[in-house]
Specification:
The protein has helices at residues 2-11, 29-45, 62-76, 87-90, 96-115, 126-139, 143-146, 169-178, 195-210, 214-243, 256-260, 264-279, 287-299; strands at 20-24, 48-55, 79-84, 119-121, 152-155, 158-161, 244-247, 251-255, 305-308, 311-315, 319-324. β7 (244-247) and β8 (251-255) form a beta hairpin. It is of the alpha/beta class. Strands 3-2-1-4-6-5 form a six-stranded mixed sheet, sandwiched between helices. It folds into two domains: 2-219, Rossmann fold (3-Layer(aba) Sandwich), CATH 3.40.50.620; 248-324, 2-Layer Sandwich (Uridine Diphospho-n-acetylenolpyruvylglucosamine Reductase, domain 3), CATH 3.30.465.
Length: 327
């Protein structure tokens, strides 16, 4: 485990000397293993570590887990910050998992502002990546989604690193047991009502019967797609900048003639970039929406309108007008 951890840090350039890092700690085996791995290199790298825990209040054990992490941090001499919120009360019927994720990210951003630390370490591992790729395949994701998640990425002002991304879950558990390190077990991970759990407990074992190396194969696929997507995105972003005309906080316009000349692949990515700039994300944007926009631009008369999730798109004489409906 130590070797995998250190090699991953170097391979993806995740860490520098005297770094200040927020560690997202849930209390499960993955985040506890990550905490202890960082402690092993803390003196060598002269690191400043802060453990951050978000209590979702979704399970009876949530308060016990928060207390468990607090005691570990006190014992190890690591600063501990936690926040408790009733996630269920924020749920509006879309996705409880997404609601929890959004609130957790808001918490990490708040800790970043309070501590002035701009690096966040999360304990996603190789099995998590394989599951994410499978989930997005089943849901019909495009190239961006099939990358899964990356070893290093940006979220607003935060640099997010995943130093366990090349470790298998079974390796993590084995190491913790060898070191006699305690961790919490989230029983909801075994409930098949959650999509990810069904993928983990039913689909992945079936695929491993067909290909014992399926986890590595899916992770290699994600890595390969990521390289291709980076090139396509870079090209599409340069096109977006040349086509962008007027812009306000809630709307922007793109040159209609230029959009018509784009290949379908670049067109789709330019539209995604435009929507992400307005909304901050492209959630709920599906291929049927992109196809309808292409039909709007190529075949419908000026003045035609297309309604999208949280957006309205209007074809004008020389421009495509996109407006966000989010307050």
């Amino acid at each position: 485990m130590e070797e995998i951890f250190k090699n991953t840090l170097k391979k993806y350039n995740l860490l520098k000397k005297k770094d200040k890092i927020i560690l997202g700690i849930s209390g499960g085996p993955d985040s506890i293993a990550m905490l202890y791995q960082f402690l092993k290199i803390r003196k060598e790298y002269k690191l400043q570590l802060v453990c951050a825990h978000f209590n979702h209040s979704l399970r009876a054990e949530a308060d016990i887990e928060e207390e468990f992490i607090g005691k570990i941090c006190a014992k190890l001499g690591v600063k501990f910050i936690s926040e408790k919120k009733d996630v269920q009360s924020f749920f509006k019927g879309d996705s409880l998992e997404q609601t929890a994720r959004n609130l957790r990210l808001d918490f990490f951003m708040k800790i970043s502002r309070q501590t002035k630390i701009k690096k966040l370490a999360l304990a996603h591992h190789k099995d998590d990546l394989a599951e994410t790729v499978l989930m997005r395949m089943v849901r019909g994701s495009g190239l961006k989604g099939l990358r899964g998640f990356l070893p290093k990425t940006k979220f607003k002002s935060l640099t997010v690193i995943r130093p366990l991304i090349e470790a298998r879950k079974k390796e993590i558990i084995k190491w913790l047991k060898q070191q006699k390190i305690s961790f919490c077990v989230d029983k909801s991970n075994f409930e098949e009502k959650f999509f990810r759990n069904r993928v983990r407990l039913k689909l992945l074992p079936l695929l491993e019967e067909l290909n014992p190396s399926i986890v590595s194969s899916l992770c290699n696929l994600a890595s390969s797609i990521s390289l291709d997507y980076d090139f396509i995105y870079s090209f599409a972003h340069s096109k977006f900048l040349t086509l962008k005309r007027k812009e306000t906080r809630k709307s922007l316009c793109l040159d209609l003639k230029g959009l018509k000349e784009l290949s379908p692949a670049i067109f789709n990515n330019v539209i995604r970039i435009a929507i992400e700039e307005l909304k901050g994300n492209t959630r709920r944007l599906e291929i049927k929406h992109l196809n309808e926009l292409q039909d709007l631009i190529l075949h419908r008369p000026s003045g035609s309108i297309v309604d999208l999730p949280d957006l309205i798109v209007k074809k004008e004489e020389k421009l495509l007008f996109i407006q966000s409906l989010i307050l």
